[in-house]
């Protein structure tokens, strides 16, 4: 073999081996962005930061939270849908980004089913029906049944707050009204915090709100809970009956969130992410964190999570259409 032939052979061998070497680079080999489609400081953001911290410790690579709020969580979701499918840009998606948005936005810039690879559901958190005990309009309301009687006596007179038109707690209240056959006057706010403050002050009559933010005000006596939207009572508020047990069997509304990668992410990367996130969610630390927010650590398989999303899209599209809800 002459020198020129030998050099060509070596060059060819090196060229062939390069893709193999690249394919064998372990994942993750650089920092991973975890996109949160809400502002910093909210319940979703707090969970994301805890998960990112635990994933960093588990993998040895930084998992960094990047907040991209706006348009009911669809801006952050769209960013991930269009990101490189390499496992280094992930989404902490929610019922808003992957279920209710389909019915709300006729020109949604992404397809929740086709543009994402579901990794795992993190948790599902119920809402509490809360009102101020000092509110004279609801001072005698101790149960959901009492609320329904008042609402039927004066249709549209009672008001309810939400974190915005088309938000998950707005749609949850629409479903409650449909189940109970009542009419309430909707007052949308720019976020659940201002809405909850007005309910506690008695300016707005009631609200469906997650356990995490309502619980401190309930314990302080500024709010009372008339029911919870899970099928089982919450260990955090064992004396609060479910909507289902107050005359509406099967009624359940849960605000869930989970982890996604862009569609087309390599199967080996998705498998690694599924294993690592499952281990983190099943740890005592994360289980305690999620339970303190009112939800269990779920850690579903990708197939189970995909099935949930499909069913939720169908469910909430129907609610949006029947209620005639339009996004802000």
Rg estimate, integer Å: 23 Å
User: What shape does the CA trace take?
Assistant: globular
Overall mean confidence score, pLDDT: 91
Q: Quick one: CATH superfamily of the largest domain?
A: Bordetella uptake gene, domain 1
Main sheet record: 9 strands, mixed
Instruction: Look at the structure and give the CATH class of the largest domain.
Output: Alpha Beta
Helix content estimate? 40-55%
SSE series: HEHEHEHEHEHEHEHEEHHH
Report the CATH architecture of the largest domain. 3-Layer(aba) Sandwich
Distance between the termini: 74 Å
What fraction strand? 15-25%
Total of DSSP H or I helical runs spanning 4+ residues: 11
How many extended strands? Answer: 9
Q: How many domains, in number, for the residues?
A: 2
What is the third-level CATH name, the topology of the largest domain?
D-Maltodextrin-Binding Protein, domain 2
Q: What structural class do you assign from the helix and strand content?
A: alpha/beta
């Amino acid at each position: 073999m002459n020198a020129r032939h030998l050099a060509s052979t070596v060059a060819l061998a090196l060229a062939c081996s390069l893709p193999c070497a690249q394919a064998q680079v372990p994942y993750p080999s650089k920092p991973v962005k975890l996109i949160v489609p809400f502002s910093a400081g909210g319940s979703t953001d707090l969970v994301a930061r805890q998960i990112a911290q635990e994933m960093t410790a588990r993998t040895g690579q930084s998992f960094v939270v990047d907040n991209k709020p706006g348009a009911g969580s669809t801006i952050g979701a769209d960013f991930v849908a269009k990101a490189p499918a390499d496992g280094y840009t992930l989404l902490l998606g929610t019922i808003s980004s992957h279920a209710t948005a389909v019915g709300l936005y006729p020109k949604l810039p992404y397809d929740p089913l086709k543009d994402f690879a579901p990794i795992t559901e993190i948790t599902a958190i119920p809402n509490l029906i809360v009102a101020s005990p000092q509110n004279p309009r609801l001072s005698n309301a101790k149960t959901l049944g009492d609320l329904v009687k008042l609402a039927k006596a004066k249709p549209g007179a009672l008001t309810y707050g939400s974190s915005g038109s088309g938000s998950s707690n707005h749609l949850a209240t629409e479903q409650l009204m449909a189940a109970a056959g009542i009419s309430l006057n909707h007052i949308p706010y720019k976020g659940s915090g201002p809405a909850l403050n007005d309910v506690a002050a008695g300016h707005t009559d009631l609200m469906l709100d997650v356990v995490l933010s309502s619980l401190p005000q309930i314990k302080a006596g500024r709010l009372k809970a008339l029911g919870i939207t899970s099928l089982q009572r919450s260990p955090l508020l064992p004396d609060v009956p479910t909507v289902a047990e107050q005359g509406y069997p099967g009624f359940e509304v849960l605000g869930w969130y989970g982890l996604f990668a862009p569609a087309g992410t390599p199967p080996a990367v998705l498998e690694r992410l599924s294993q690592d996130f499952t281990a983190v969610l099943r740890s005592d630390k994360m289980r305690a964190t999620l339970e303190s927010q009112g939800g269990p650590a779920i850690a579903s398989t990708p197939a189970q999570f995909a099935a949930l999303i499909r069913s939720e899209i169908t469910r909430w599209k129907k609610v949006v259409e029947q209620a005639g809800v339009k996004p802000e």
